[in-house]
Amino acid sequence: MKILILGDVMGNTGRKALEENFKKITTEHKIDFTVVNGENAAEDGKGITKEIADSFFSCGVDVITSGNHIWDKGETPEYISNEQRLLRPENLAEGSPGSGHGIFMTKDKKFKVGVINLMGNVFMKKTEDLFSAAKNLQNKIKLKEDADFIIVDLHGEITSEKMAMGHFYDGKATAVVGTHTHVPTADTRILDHGTAYQTDIGMCGDYNSVIGMNKENSIMKFLKDEKAQRHFPSEGKSTLSGIIVEADEKTGLAKNVERFIYGGVLTH
Known about the structure:
Order of helices and strands: EEHEHEHEEHEHEEEEHEE
Largest sheet: 6 strands, mixed
Number of helices: 6
CATH superfamily: Metallo-dependent phosphatases
Number of strands: 13
């Protein structure tokens, strides 16, 4: 069982790179299931629209996770209420539209994959307690009981929350990945009890930028230049960034994990 997990899709250039290359990548790597974080996929890099989400699903994406920008487009609450494959963080305020977790079938109908979307508490928009939500979900979705494989996307700002979550889920999930900071970390590994882990899997966007935003404008904003505009995505060639996990079908745990980097400046 091979699972591809891609980091935050950033703006038009990230979206186009995903749509144009997705089928080729999944075919070449013999991918069985895919999770993509789409919370920055809108044209301005904030939120996701129904049209974009539907396009990702048409390409073959199985589940879209998100984060702090999930409600930036007004149409999303209604859409997410009817589309179970688009997740929002589990620990948003009680009563938020949609769901932060789900169990999905692989395309060949052989396996059930649990996908959990969480958001950090530190330096993020107000959320319910992260680890309480994670603990509740551990009791609700158990590996090899409720799902054959479990993927956790923790959308968070700080490394310590993500690393603690990796160890918290070690042996109880197939993979735990961090998203949000848009820069892939070099700590890709399998933890002691068999869970694949990476603190942040990066973004699908133009890395000749400031975390996906136009670099010249970003510098002007840091300099407090009055001519600076609101942040807008960089439009150069995108790198698709994430991980590929090979999982054991008997245990649901990881046998192998490798960073996935495709196209753009990071390949040079």
